[in-house]
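Can anyone check this?
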Amino acid sequence: MSEQDDTEREFDLRWADGAAHKEPSARARMLAARWKNDPPAPVPFRAAPGHTARRRSSWLSTVVVLGCVVAVIVLLGWINFRAPY
């Protein structure tokens, strides 16, 4: 029974894929209708030429990470030192 269902399903998929006209999705139809009356403004691929983001120094990030690692090591050593054996 399942073998017959699989062949029927495969036939349906081949029939659907071979259709001469494919209907656009609901979202594509919605956007086409919206843009017909009010087309979207063009959006540049890159930012405007005078706009640059401020970059932080990589050294600052390195110091912060290493400082956190040292603080954790010191805290764990202090906890081990205080713990009674």
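Reply from J.R.: I decoded it. The chain is about 60% helix and 0% strand.
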